[in-house]
């Protein structure tokens, strides 16, 4: 149990580092030197020391929303297995709770955006709502497809099942579900080509517009939660699709190997994100539904293939 | 009275059936009582509350006893009128009596404030009887008892809608309501009567016995009649046209009762038919119910997003929630017919707990809407704003309601959706390929519905309660405690069931086991532990986040460096939903009207008015031919009506001869 708690704390604390590393890799790809990978920590520290500006129109919900959203995201992290083969919380159907916890956080931030009393908050919330509406079905369907392929309904069991398979035996269900989940993860974490995490131009903002009015510690919670969400989804994808090497026994050697392998796998994922973000341009907002159309079609195909695979002896 | 039945059960039944009648009589006297009128209305209200309490106690007793409780009221009735309370009936009796209590309490200050004396008296004459009619539906154990309740429920709710006001359009809406309800009732009655060749009498016990021995074709016919009959009452799309018209125009507590509770009587009756009388229904029935549920859930919430008026939005969201319940019922039927009993039980539990949860949060939201209109005299979302500051208690409990109805975890709406997801996933283990494919795909439908509901209620709540007020003059009418208390109780129930779902799941499990045997309670219990751990982590996270030392400074909202940010510049509910409406525009096919005055100055107009309404094309497409056919037939039938009595005698004679011939040569 202590190790599972450590894994959970590790995911929460390492989140800003992941963000910083992606930013650094992107800078290197664009032939800039870039800031240190530790910069997000410094930024959080700075924000925590600043004062919290609340707009005149705001109610108690304005300050509560980012804190509650942060707590929801942290709680969702407790489900993710990255080093040991089970998360801190694990039960049948846990992935549904994980998906809905993330939805709760987003719901709260939308309300926070409304409460700022300017049009930016509402605008960002409105766009975020559209993205979340389109992303929910492919997210659930691809997780469902994996659960069906593994014939179990908890993340730990799915990870365990995939880990027991030979890499070259991996089914088409996994390929389809992975592609679909990648699309969703990109959108959920507000990255290119759905959203641009570095922009502050109102025409292009989604997430950033929603939280525009936040400052100081409130903003720190928003930013940290956002980083945790990225770390969580990256960890989840790694665990679901490349669990090989995850610690199934409690020996120090197994754990050390698992940690090392996880860091390597995550590094590949981060490099992929940096490369992708440097190569593609942000989609026009009304092209985003087509992006999700592909993701939804892939996730439906994944479900179809779970049935087809079952037919074969 | 059967032997060994505790004495207090019959007392409770007498209170449950007697007090509403007494209360209605008191209210009728109140019309002529002058000074004592208020006391008499109060007496009627107290009587209603006591009757509902008796019903709640009976419902809990029915669960605890585990054997059906009987009560015979045939003495008061021309046909056998037997009341029986098994666990299924008891569960829905709990919804009808227990969950309606807050709405009854809310009604008293509401009617005293809104209505002149005579109308308030009428209200208290109808309301107890309306509740009694719903009690009759869920406890009736003969066709007569059930059907008397079913009809009274329609008529009394129509009467209550009339109390809110009169007018050409309202009459049309109420006419439509009564018309569709009676069409549905005709189907329901036919479904009951189709049992009669096999059943010796029309009480539920013989229907159940007949259902076991019946040929498959008869069963299929009964299933179809019951499906369409109850779907009309439940507001399944496309039979829902009456719902968004009739529900919002009722007095607010009655809207709450109609949406939150009356629709559940249709769910009760459908579950009773399918799982009790027809032992699971035909194998293809599950697909029909799933399709109906999926269409209602997605379209219902999409239409809700389009609505700028809170009560209409809530009415459409009822269509969505009934859709979710039907999805779960369909999954239960399909899992049952494909041999995965464990998940059939899960799915039925999902349907039942979502019925309870929807009753709770829909009552909360409608009553909250009543509190908003009490304070602001408006329910148009785009005219409200900033209400959380001026009405903090109502605003906070409404937030609980919105979170619950969006199906977010730690509140009750999530529990039902989680169970439904589990059963969809389990359906993937069925033996045949079709359910293997269809059930998991329904998870996508449910996920889409959930995300749309979250967007819908974020927009409604944000527009009404957050930001700055759009209407400057909020009348300083303080919402009385008697109106706030029911809201707080309902919100508390949402949170308690959300964090401790076992409180509701344990009785529902006992009930499900009587209808779909072979379930597995362990897999259900898993969610409770998971949710409680998450609740702990979240609580710790929130506490830790608030402990961080912060200096708060209130400052004006950033306005791009310019002065003069006004409330009208905020995003409204309509602008919030714009991207979603654009993405789903083929569903709406909005009818837009843009008027710029004067026309010769398009860039510097004096006024611009813009209207956008959802097209009702498929409703027209579906109903127009039916209405036309009925009208054409009626025109033809008019020729029979000569007004000459000899002709009518001839008709009677011919009918008699035809009947005699039919009986002779059958």
In short:
Chain A is mainly α. In chain A, 70% of the residues lie in helices and 1% in strands. The longest helix of chain A is centred in the middle third of the chain and has 32 residues, at 119-150.
Low-confidence stretches of chain B: none
Q: How many individual helices of chain B? A: 26
Poorly predicted segments of chain A: none
Number of helices of chain A: 11
Distance between the termini of chain B: 42 Å
How confident is the prediction overall: mean pLDDT of chain A? Answer: 88
Provide the helix percentage of chain B: over 70%
Beginning-to-end CA distance, first to last residue of chain A: 39 Å
Main beta-sheet annotation of chain B: 2 strands, antiparallel
Q: Using only CA atoms, what is the Rg of chain B?
A: 26 Å
**Category from helices, strands and their pairing of chain A:** mainly alpha
Helix percent of chain A reads over 70%
The rough form of chain A would be described as globular
Largest sheet of chain A: none
Written description of the protein model:
- The complex is a heterodimer of chains A (313) and B (666).
- By secondary structure, chain A is mostly helical.
- Chain A is 70% helix and 1% strand.
- Chain A is built from 11 helices and 1 strand, in the order ααβααααααααα.
- Chain A is globular.
- The relative contact order of chain A is 0.16.
- The mean pLDDT of chain A is 88.
- Chain B has 666 residues and is mainly alpha-helical.
- Chain B has a domain of 48 residues.
- In chain B, the strands form 2 sheets. Chain B has a two-stranded antiparallel sheet with strand order 1-2.
- The two termini of chain B are 42 Å apart.
- Classes of the chains: A mainly alpha (313), B mainly alpha (666).
- At the A-B interface, strand 1, helix 3, helix 4, helix 5 and helix 9 of A face helix 16, helix 17, helix 18, helix 21 and strand 3 of B.
């Amino acid at each position: 149990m202590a190790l599972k708690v450590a894994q959970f704390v590790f995911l929460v604390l390492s989140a800003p580092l992941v963000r910083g590393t992606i930013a650094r890799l992107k800078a290197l790809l664009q032939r800039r030197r870039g800031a240190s990978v530790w910069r997000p920590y410094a930024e959080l520290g700075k924000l925590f020391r600043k004062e919290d500006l609340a707009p005149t129109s705001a109610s108690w919900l304005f300050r509560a929303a980012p804190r509650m959203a942060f707590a929801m995201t942290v709680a969702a992290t407790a489900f993710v297995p990255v080093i040991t083969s089970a998360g801190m919380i694990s039960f049948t159907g846990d992935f549904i709770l994980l998906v809905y916890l993330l939805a709760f956080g987003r719901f709260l931030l939308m309300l926070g955006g409304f409460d700022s009393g300017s049009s930016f908050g509402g605008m960002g919330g409105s766009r975020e709502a559209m993205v979340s509406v389109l992303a929910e079905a492919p997210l659930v369907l691809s997780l469902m497809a994996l659960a069906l392929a593994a014939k179990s309904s908890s993340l730990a069991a799915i990870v365990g099942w995939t880990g027991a398979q030979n890499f070259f035996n991996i089914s088409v269900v996994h390929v389809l579900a992975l592609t679909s989940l990648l699309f969703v993860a990109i959108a959920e974490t507000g990255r290119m080509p759905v959203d641009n995490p570095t922009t502050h131009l109102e025409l292009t903002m989604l997430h950033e517009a929603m939280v525009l009015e936040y400052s100081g510690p409130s903003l720190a919670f928003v930013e940290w939660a956002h980083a945790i969400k990225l770390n969580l989804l990256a960890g989840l994808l790694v665990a679901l699709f490349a669990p090989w090497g995850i610690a199934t026994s409690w020996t120090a050697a197994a754990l050390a190997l698992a940690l090392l392998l996880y860091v390597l796998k995550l590094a590949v994922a981060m490099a992929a994100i940096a490369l992708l973000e440097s190569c593609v341009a942000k989609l026009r907002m009304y092209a985003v539904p087509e992006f999700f159309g592909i993701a939804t079609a892939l996730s439906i195909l994944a479900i179809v293939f779970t049935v087809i695979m079952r037919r074969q002896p | 009275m059967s032997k060994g039945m505790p004495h207090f059960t019959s007392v409770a039944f007498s209170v449950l059936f007697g007090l509403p009648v007494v209360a209605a009589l008191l209210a009728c006297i109140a019309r002529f009582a002058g000074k004592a009128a208020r006391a008499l209305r109060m007496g009627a209200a107290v009587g209603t509350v006591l009757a509902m309490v008796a019903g709640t106690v009976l419902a809990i007793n029915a669960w605890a006893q585990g054997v059906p409780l009987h009560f015979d009221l045939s003495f008061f009735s021309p046909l056998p009128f037997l009341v029986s309370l098994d666990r299924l009936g008891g569960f829905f009796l709990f919804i009808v009596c227990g969950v309606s209590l807050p709405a009854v309490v809310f009604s008293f200050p509401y009617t005293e404030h809104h209505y002149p004396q005579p109308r308030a008296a009428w209200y208290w004459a109808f309301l107890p009887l309306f509740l009694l009619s719903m009690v009759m539906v869920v406890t009736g154990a003969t066709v007569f008892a059930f059907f008397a309740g079913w009809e009274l429920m329609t008529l009394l709710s129509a009467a209550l809608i009339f109390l809110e006001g009169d007018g050409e359009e309202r009459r049309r809406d109420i006419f439509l309501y009564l018309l569709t309800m009676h069409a549905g009732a005709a189907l329901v009655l036919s479904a009951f009567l189709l049992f009669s060749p096999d059943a010796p009498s029309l009480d539920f016990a013989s229907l159940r016995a007949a259902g076991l021995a019946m040929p498959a074709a008869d069963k299929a016919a009964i299933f179809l009649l019951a499906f369409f009959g109850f779907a009309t009452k439940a507001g399944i799309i496309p039979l829902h046209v009456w719902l968004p018209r009739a529900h919002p125009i009722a007095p607010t507590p009655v809207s709450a009762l109609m949406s939150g509770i009356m629709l559940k009587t249709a769910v009760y009756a459908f579950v009773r038919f399918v799982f009790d009388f027809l032992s699971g229904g035909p194998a293809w029935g599950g697909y029909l119910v799933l399709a109906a549920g999926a269409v209602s859930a997605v379209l219902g919430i999409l239409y809700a997003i389009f609505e700028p008026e809170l009560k209409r939005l809530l009415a459409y969201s009822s269509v969505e929630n009934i859709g979710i319940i039907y999805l779960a019922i369909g999954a239960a039927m399909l899992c049952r017919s494909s041999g995965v009993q464990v998940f059939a039980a899960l799915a039925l539990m999902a349907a039942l707990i979502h019925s309870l949860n929807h009753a709770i949060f829909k009552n909360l939201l409608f009553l909250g809407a009543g509190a908003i209109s009490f304070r602001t005299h408006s329910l148009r979302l785009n005219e409200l704003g900033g209400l959380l500051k001026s009405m903090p208690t109502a605003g906070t409990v409404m937030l609980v309601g919105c979170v619950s109805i969006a199906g977010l975890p730690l509140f009750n709406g999530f529990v039902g959706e989680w169970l439904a997801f589990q059963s969809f996933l389990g359906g993937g283990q069925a033996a045949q390929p079709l359910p293997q494919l269809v059930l998991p795909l329904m998870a996508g439908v449910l996920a889409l519905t959930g995300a749309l509901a979250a967007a819908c209620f974020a927009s409604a709540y944000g527009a009404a309660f957050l930001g700055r007020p759009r209407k400057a003059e909020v009348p300083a009418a303080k919402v009385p405690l008697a109106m706030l208390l029911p809201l707080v109780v309902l919100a508390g129930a949402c949170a308690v069931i959300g964090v401790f779902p076992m409180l509701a799941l344990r009785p529902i499990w006992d009930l499900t086991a009587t209808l779909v045997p072979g379930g597995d309670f362990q897999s259900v219990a898993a969610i409770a532990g998971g949710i409680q751990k998450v609740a702990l982590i979240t609580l710790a996270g929130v506490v830790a986040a608030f402990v961080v030392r912060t200096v708060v400074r209130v400052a004006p909202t950033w306005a791009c460096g310019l002065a003069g940010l006004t409330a009208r510049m905020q995003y409204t509910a309509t602008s919030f939903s714009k991207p979603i409406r654009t993405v789903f525009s083929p569903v709406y096919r909005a009818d837009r009207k843009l008027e710029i005055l004067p026309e010769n100055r398009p860039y510097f107009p004096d006024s611009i008015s813009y209207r956008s309404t959802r097209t009702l094309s498929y409703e027209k497409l579906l109903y127009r031919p039916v209405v036309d056919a009925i009208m054409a037939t009626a025109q033809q039938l008019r020729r029979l009506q000569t007004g000459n009595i000899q002709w009518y005698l001839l008709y009677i004679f011919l009918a008699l001869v035809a009947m005699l011939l039919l009986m002779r040569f059958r």
